[in-house]
Amino acid sequence: MSKPHKQIHLAAHFPGVNNTTVWSDPEAGSHIEFSSFAHFARTAERAKFDFLFLAEGLRLREQGGQVYDLDVVGRPDTFTVLAALAAVTEHLGLTGTINSTFNEPYEVARQFASLDHLSGGRSAWNVVTSWDAFTGENFRRGGFLPQDERYSRAKEFLATAGELFDSWRGDEILADQVTGTFLRDAKAGAFVHTGRHFDIHGRFNVPRSPQGRPVIFQAGDSDEGREFAASSADAIFSRHATLKEGQAFYTDVKRRLATYGRHPDQLLILPAATFVLGDTDAEAEELAKEVRRQQVSGATAIKHLEFVWNRDLSSYDPDGPLPDIDPDPGEHHIARGRAQVRMYRDPLATARAWRELATANNWSIRDLVIQTGNRQNFVGSPATVAKTINDFVQADAADGFILVPHITPGGLDVFADKVVPLLQEQGVFRTEYEGPTLRDHLGLAHPDDVRGERVAS
């Protein structure tokens, strides 16, 4: 008997605080006007996507002591945007990145429970930690938590929020969902938590929401992050979008689930993926080259090189050779608030490898950054892209993809109109939503049902 086809999960990422968006395109729009978010969300819902994903930047990034003017410089509060989108969509899941390093469990749990009620059970929380003191300067907690402490706090943060959500669980707790008044049981919402990071007690004032808890996403790629996801998350926002890397990551994370009494289908792996579509594969390849050159201007190339060199390279010609001087391996002081800095843990080795590549290929600084930077994951005609996505999912390199278009807000439209119908024809993507909640879209059980299974076992 042949193996049944897996159903593909698709989501849309509203591009975050980065230089993914091609601002020079006449179709590029605002990252702060609500009309951009609304257009993006409505397109995703028209295509029957599982959810919209919204990242969050907690501080304006700096380069050389000045605000980095090549990025999106700011955006409205995540909860505010998602709550507004709940009013202009009916089925689309609403996923927001909320930091566990600088917030408190009670306020975050209250916000997500409220969003779940307002949206009819469509909320999801991407649980992240913060790694740098620079961002922490905006908050009382600051950036003093080392990596192991950040994950320790994140685990307790999530567990504490779960206790708050669950303080309204049970048949003995009844409330009028229209007026919010109690009908019975004075214990409803009562909680006590005493732990290493949080010591709180009181009464949670938002009744049990349609999903019980928001769907939990996690985005860390370290060993600690993978364990955190295996123990507590419903889905992983992964960066491994190539076939080989995706299969390795998929296998590694799924095998960890058994340790926590979980099944492989209780955790979805959803890499971020970019795309460029053309009428033919050749046309798409040419468009992709042009997009990469638009994304990496000369100024952007120099700024990117500074992530590695940790030096002011503004005097260098982006169309000239790489610097002869070596990177400064000391504490990073050029680029602040940028996750890319962490990607180059051995800057001297990276510089040597890049010089060898540039010499062998006669690349300029800009050429090198274009060639070594993030390429589009899916490039081709609609038929080619649909086949590639399906091949990846059926080969267990992913359970689906979170798509990141390079034009906001209309860049998702062509995918919705030309690729989604092909996946639907193949029977690997829905033609209609099967249920009202995000858990329904993702094929995830309600937390109360999962708890019942565990108790029974």
CATH topology of the largest domain: TIM Barrel
CATH architecture of the largest domain: Alpha-Beta Barrel
Total number of domains: 2
Strand order of the largest sheet: 1-2-5-6-11-12-13-17
Number of E-type strands: 17
Major β-sheet profile: 8 strands, parallel, barrel
Shape category: globular
Strand content: 5-15%
Please give the oligomerization state of what you see: single chain
Helix percentage range: 25-40%
Which parts are unreliable, with pLDDT below 50 for 5 consecutive residues or more? 171-176, 178-183, 452-457
Write out the CATH superfamily name of the largest domain.
Luciferase-like domain
CATH class of the largest domain: Alpha Beta
In whole angstroms, the N-to-C terminal distance is 30 Å
Mean pLDDT: 86
Structure in words:
With 457 residues, the protein is an alpha/beta fold. It has 2 domains: 9-279 and 376-456, TIM Barrel (Alpha-Beta Barrel); 297-372, no CATH class. It is built from 17 helices and 17 strands. It has helices at 34-46, 78-86, 105-119, 133-136, 147-166, 223-232, 243-256, 281-295, 298-309, 340-343, 347-361, 365-372, 382-394, 413-418, 420-425, 438-442, 447-456; strands at residues 9-14, 51-54, 62-63, 66-67, 93-99, 123-128, 174-175, 182-184, 190-194, 199-203, 215-218, 235-238, 268-273, 275-277, 335-336, 378-380, 400-403. The strands form 5 sheets. An 8-stranded parallel beta barrel has the order 1-2-5-6-11-12-13-17, surrounded by 5 helices. The protein has a 3-stranded antiparallel sheet with strand order 4-3-15. Strand 7 and strand 8 form a beta hairpin. Helix 3 (105-119) crosses helix 5, helix 5 runs parallel beside helix 6 and helix 9 crosses helix 12 (365-372). The longest helix is centred in the middle third of the chain and has 20 residues, at 147-166. It is globular, with a radius of gyration of 23 Å. Belongs to the NtaA/SnaA/DszA monooxygenase family. Keywords: Flavoprotein, FMN, Monooxygenase, Oxidoreductase. Its EC number is 1.14.-.-. It is an enzyme of class 1 (oxidoreductase). InterPro entries: Diverse_substr_monoxygenases (IPR051260), Luciferase-like_dom (IPR011251), Luciferase-like_sf (IPR036661), NTA_MOA (IPR016215).
